[in-house]
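queue> holo job accepted (iron/sulfur cluster)
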Amino acid sequence: MSDEKVYILPCSGIGKVFGSIGREAAYIVVDELAKDKTKLECLPLVVKGKKEIIETLKANKVIVIDGCPMRCSYNDITEAVGKVDAQFMSTDIVKERRDLKPEKQIIPMGENAKKLSLILAEKIASKVNELLEENRGGDE
Ligand code: SF4
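queue> job finished
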């Protein structure tokens, strides 16, 4: 059971603070909040049709994170894998926490953007636990 993983796929979101918040949240989840329960996977490899990765994602729970309503990760994963198990958008967190206006600069990440990343990461980590619980329920 302990080797069960939820796969996390943030969009690339290069050059955009919202994409960076999504990626940073993914790192916090995988490196800290749900360290032994999650694994990052590379969206471009899925888009390129890398078979082993696509089969792994089909067989496991998948969470996508997007930085804007274009929802590149959601759309690419849905097309290649046929499903996602949960989706998050960093812009939703920004709307929820209007008191934390993200700074424009990407590197170094501003204090508000860091806080937003952590808030998003906490929501994702909680969803990871839910999905793993569902898996356990399904095994019985
Ligand atoms: S979802 Fe938005 S921020 Fe993310 S890669 Fe696509 S266009 Fe860029």
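queue> The chain has six helices and four strands.
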